[in-house]
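USER:
Class, as today's exercise, take the chain set out below, and explain how the chain folds.
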Amino acid sequence: MGASKWISFLAHQYEHPYGFELYLVQYVWQFAIPSVVVALLCGLLFFANKWCEKLFGILRRRAKQ
């Protein structure tokens, strides 16, 4: 997409009273929410991994005794 097309697209969005807001909502819905979900899942996996390591460490220590 060329710069002139992008500018005309933005100008066209501004002509409508709710055009740009709807575009932003659509952008947020398509990109921000999935990325937040992915980040949360990664964080969850990270903490689950840490928790499992702790748990297995305790179990290993008990097994050695």
Q: What stands out?
A: The chain has a mean pLDDT of 81. The two ends are 67 Å apart (CA to CA).
